[in-house]
Amino acid sequence: MSAFRRGSWVSLLELCWVLMGLWRLGAACPTSCSCSGTRIACVDQERGIMAFPVLQSELEMDNITDIYIANQSSFSSINDKDLHYYRNLTNLTVTNSRLTYVSRLAFQNNLKLQYLNLKDNNLSSLYWRIFRHLNISNLILSGNPLHCSCENMWMKLWLGEEADAQELKCIEEGGGRKPLTRLNPPHCGNGPKIHTHTHAHLPMILKTHTMDLIFSTNHLL
């Protein structure tokens, strides 16, 4: 067999392996989603999902850097292990869905996560410890029924003017809404002084400032 023919067979074999890999990825991808080597997108309302897709192998999930989920009426929580195998995830969007709960350990294995968009869901609060080990540079929370409570004070402290840019509001006990930047509930302590115009990384704020504020209310420990 000539070198040319051998090369052609090798190229054909490599192409078959690539196509086989794409077929396997597609076979593991839910019908309501689209999956590529680095991205998963689930936006189909009719054939919705209830949780994050689980691909066929850990290696495939390890290669995913971007997950985009929208318009999912049955998607209500992010639990401890849901994102366990997506270790290289950097961008996560869950928007216009029914998300009501995010576990404190939801992102324990996602140390590269930088962009988190949870816009237009049903979140009433979000615990600060979720983000303590992460370097989140973009956090979008607008369109959620956040409570005007001590538990959500860290959002005001970290987002600063960005909270107004997102038109972020919280709901008071009487049902009224007010800008998150005006959140100042009683019994939350004096509150740390943070210069938010530098938009420092969230872990730095949580480790150096927010502790005194959060720990002043025992029910948030």
Largest sheet properties = 6 strands, mixed
Radius of gyration from the alpha-carbon trace, in angstroms: 22 Å
Portion in helices: 25-40%
Continuous helix count = 5
Summarize the helix and strand pattern as letters. HEEHEEEEEEEHHEEH
The N- and C-terminal alpha carbons lie at a distance of 73 Å
- Mean pLDDT equals 81
Q: What would you give as the CATH superfamily of the largest domain? A: Ribonuclease Inhibitor
Extended strand count: 11
Kindly name the structural category.
alpha/beta
Which spans of ≥5 residues are poorly predicted at pLDDT below 50?
15-27, 190-200, 207-221
Question: Mind explaining what this structure looks like?
Answer:
The protein is globular, with a radius of gyration of 22 Å. It contains 5 helices and 11 strands. It is of the alpha/beta class and 221 residues long. Strands 1-2-3-5-7-8 form a 6-stranded mixed beta sheet, with no helix packed on it. Strands 9-10-11 form a 3-stranded mixed beta sheet, with no helix packed on it. Residues 15-27, 190-200 and 207-221 have low confidence and may be disordered. It folds into 2 domains: 1-122, Ribonuclease Inhibitor (Leucine-rich repeat, LRR (right-handed beta-alpha superhelix), Alpha-Beta Horseshoe), CATH 3.80.10.10; 148-221, no CATH class.
